[in-house]
Amino acid sequence: MKYRRLGKTELNVSVIGLGTWQFGGEWGKQFTQDEVDAILDKGQELGINLIDTAECYGDHLSEAFIGNYIGRRKREDWIIATKFGHHFHERFTRTDMYGAQDVQKQLDSSLKALQTDYIDLYQFHSGPDTAFDNDELWTMLDKQKQAGKIRHLGTSIGSNDNLHQTEASTKVHSEAIQVVYNRLDRTPEQRVFPSCERQDLGVLARVPLASGYLSGKYKPGAVFDKTDVRHRHDPENTRRKLEEVERIAREEVPEGVNMAEWALAWCLRHPAVSAVIPGCKNPAQVESNANAAKLVTE
């Protein structure tokens, strides 16, 4: 495994992290604690130290799985990033909750679910600019930092071209940006990444495999059943993406190299990117993801 500094946080994160949206059940699979334990054990075995989760991956369900695991391990072995701003109701249904008092309650609920006294990176979760620009929210969060409940603040931008929230990061003491970035969507390279580099913000690249399209497993015409999150995607857009994936596999991926591993390493080639946070359903996928670190040259 290789490690990089997460911007001005000075946290030393593994370049491959563990994304955990799937633990909330919206990938069409209900996880057990034993399955989560096996995934996290494999990650630790391979040198992964970064876990990214959120308050609304289930109603703190993903956090609770992680907390149960962490509670039986060494807390200091892991860098835990979670998020705030939504209340989960049912599959793909959430209510925005960005008010200072609401977020303070969310923070306490996350700490309880995660079975920890502190969160390493607490991220504003894909909210509108009007919610982000609330001084009362960031004042409350700064007080929680002073109280030791939060080590660092971050922003998970909903639009991967949200320059407003990225540019305002230093002002609100946000030290990291999470953004959708992959070989099929290079939008952040234009404005967000240059701003991150100017401010020394860490960057977590989410959806680095483009919802699995860059795994190399699917061909144009693939149909996803109703339990798969990709069933919600526009069919024509899916077809175009998979045709582009075929071209990339043919023209860009070196012969003999696993496409998913190549796609993760491709994200990490950009100097602004600190780590990628792919999801995984089992220990074998964790191992495949971790193998991408071998393709990273710096």
From TrEMBL:
Gene3D superfamilies: NADP-dependent oxidoreductase domain
Molecular-function GO term, any one: oxidoreductase activity
EC number: 1.1.1.-
Annotated signal peptide: none
Residue stretches making up the NADP-dependent oxidoreductase domain: 16-295
Keyword terms, alphabetized: Oxidoreductase
Tree of life domain: Bacteria
Name under which the protein is recorded: Aldo/keto reductase
Native source organism of the sequence: Paenibacillus haidiansis
Lineage start: Bacteria, Bacillati, Bacillota, Bacilli, Bacillales
